[in-house]
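Chapter summary example.
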Amino acid sequence: MTPFELVEPTSLKRAIGLLDADDPSVRPIAGGTALMLMMKAGFFRPTRLVSLRKVDKSVSGIRAGVDGSLVIGAMAPLSVVERSPEVVRHAPVIVHAMRRLANARVRNVATIGGSLAHGDPHMDLPPLLIALGASVAVTGPCGERTIKLEDLYTGYYETALERNELIFELRLPSQGKRRSAYLKCTTGSADDWPALGVAVSLDADERWVRSATVVVSAAVERTARLIRTESVLAGATIDAAVLRRAGDAAAEEAETVGDVRGSAAYKRELIRVCLARAVGQALAADGADH
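The structure predicted for these 290 residues follows.
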């Protein structure tokens, strides 16, 4: 790796002041699990890294609202989120997904904010959190703003964040009795990067679905909702025929890309099959115990 400057501010305001909107070689670093790999491989050569490790602990807490909503500080390690009683109580599907996310050593270091800001479409949490209706609170020189997570990702490793903006909170609305599931398909080990990620969240009574959110990742250039597929499920009583129609719609709607984990055509077939399985898993969940 080439030499670079490492600075460790103790406040978000100071951290933002050390970033440079016009210089892509100046980057913030949280857990660094992904960024360090890019640096070691020579894909990224920073001139300055702004470490967030010493920033005020207020950006690493987890709290629940009286309505069941959740606020998770951006610097909360994934392992802390995984074990949080508030997350277990109000969004246990996140805990279930965490168990196959990388490994315990990575989850002990990687942060929730860093995993969302990285923009890698292979990440496990973005599709699930999009399906759950999450948003991120962002701060920068011009103040604070809120971005719906589904609008954060604009392209391959590209986000709507300015270079001198930082995520400081993940905000999750109350899930009520919605039923959710995340299905990860890997072609290597169980905790490997996925060839496909599918997340669904359903407002349903028994097998009748009022509304649905469907999100795909990994097989596509950017994590995204499948709006047309959602319309197939909404207002339907789920049976084998509906699942076939939804799987066909998803395979047609998703713009799959080929890579070392499979061709675009192979991933379309994965979507066709895995969407039905994810819907089935969500319907099998009992309301808040998803």
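To summarize the output: The mean pLDDT is 94.
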